[in-house]
Amino acid sequence: MSAEPGIAVERHEDGRVHCWCCGTVDAPARMVHLGNHPEVHLCLGCAHFVHQQAWEIEDGAKRGPSAVVRDRFRNLRAAVIRRGWHRNRFIGDKLRWLGKYLP
DSSP letter at 89? Predict the structure, then answer.
C-alpha cells in the first residue's frame, strides 16, 4: 500500500500557526509556505534569514565584484554582532535598520 497519509498542520484555536524555525505564532497569511510541504511555515524574519543564507552559499562559487562586496558586508555584519554594537543604545537601532537593506 502506498497511500500517502494526510499531513496535519498544527493550528491554534484562532487559526494561527507556528514558525518551524523560531516558534513564533502568527496568521498563516503572514507566513512563508514551502511548496509541497503545507506543514512548514516560516515567519518573515526566519524567511529573510534563510534567504541570506542561500545567497551566501551561492556567492561561495562566484568571484565577481558584487559577490566580493556582499562578502565584505557579511564580514562587517559579523564584526558588528561580535562586538555587540547592534545592542548599543545610541547606534544599535540605526545598525539594525541598515542591516535590513544590506546583503
Answer: T
**Alpha helices for 1-103 (secondary structure H):** 44-59, 65-83, 92-101
The number of beta carbons lying within 10 Å of the beta carbon of residue 85 is 14
Q: What is the pLDDT of residues 52-65, one digit of tens each?
A: 888 888 888 888 88
Cβ-based neighbours of 74, under 8 Å, separated by 6 or more: 56, 103
Sequence ranges of the domains in the chain: 1-43, 62-101
Phi then psi for residue 7, to 5 deg, are: -95, 120
By the 10 Å C-beta count (0-12 exposed, 13-18 middle, 19+ buried), 67 is classed as middle
Phi first, then psi: give them for residue 18, nearest 5 degrees: -90, 145
Copy the grid coordinates of residue 79: 564584526
Task: Please state whether the predicted TM-score (pTM) of the whole model is above 0.70.
Answer: no
* The three cell numbers locating residue 40: 512548514
